[in-house]
Amino acid sequence: MSSRPQTGDSDAVRLGELLGRSWRTFSRLGQARFAESGLSAASVRLLLALAAEPDSRMGDLAKRLGVTARALTPITDSLANDGLVSRVVDPTDRRAFKLVLTGLGASRAENLSILQAEISDEIFGALTSEQRRELERLLRTFVEATGDETTDEC
């Protein structure tokens, strides 16, 4: 009979499992609603990030989104083909490109931002304002303690 080594607090294990389940639920519900926009979740994230930081370099956006610049290329291609973004050579470094929202892209990002607020209100509707603030505080503490380098808003 082999005994399992004690590797940590069972409360911590339950929290990890609950956090994973919470993320899957949040992701599933959000993606279902964002699908109504006709865009992938990755495209929505990129448009909203670009709306928050206009004229950003692809590399900076990739870092902010927690993906590689290479992963952004097909998403950017798709958004460019749809007339939502355009690539512009960065005047400070001609090897780099900045992404710019087109007029249509800016309008779409504004609508997506409204949809994002509606989705979040639906998902967190069971929590009081005080519970939402406490959850935000706990999640920020968790993210900071795990060494996430992203310091801006999610």
Explain the layout of strands and helices.
Blueprint: H1 10-34, H2 41-52, E1 56-57, H3 58-65, H4 69-81, E2 85-90, E3 93-101, H5 103-123, H6 129-145
Antiparallel strand pairs: 1-3, 2-3
Helix pairs in contact: 1-5, 2-5, 3-4
Pfam family, one: MarR_2
Protein name: Winged helix-turn-helix transcriptional regulator
InterPro entries: HTH_MarR-typ (IPR000835), WH-like_DNA-bd_sf (IPR036388), WH_DNA-bd_sf (IPR036390)
Class based on secondary structure composition and strand pairing: mainly alpha
The first-to-last residue Cα distance is: 47 Å
Mean pLDDT across all residues, rounded?
Answer: 87
The gross shape turns out to be: globular
Helix proportion: 55-70%
Seen as an oligomer or otherwise, the chain set is single chain
Q: Quick one: CATH class?
A: Mainly Alpha
Our count of helices gives 6
The fraction of residues assigned to DSSP E strands is 5-15%
CATH architecture: Orthogonal Bundle
Per CATH, the superfamily is: Winged helix-like DNA-binding domain superfamily/Winged helix DNA-binding domain
State the total count of DSSP E strands. 3
CATH fold type: Arc Repressor Mutant, subunit A
Strand order of the largest sheet: 1-3-2
Low-pLDDT stretches: none
What does this structure look like?
- The structure is a single chain.
- The protein is globular and about 50 Å long.
- The protein is built from six helices and three strands; from the N terminus they run H-H-E-H-H-E-E-H-H.
- The protein starts with 9 loop residues before the first helix and ends in a 9-residue tail after the last helix.
- The protein is mainly alpha-helical and 154 residues long.
- It has one domain: Winged helix-like DNA-binding domain superfamily/Winged helix DNA-binding domain (Arc Repressor Mutant, subunit A, Orthogonal Bundle), CATH 1.10.10.
- The longest helix has 25 residues.
- Pfam families: MarR_2.
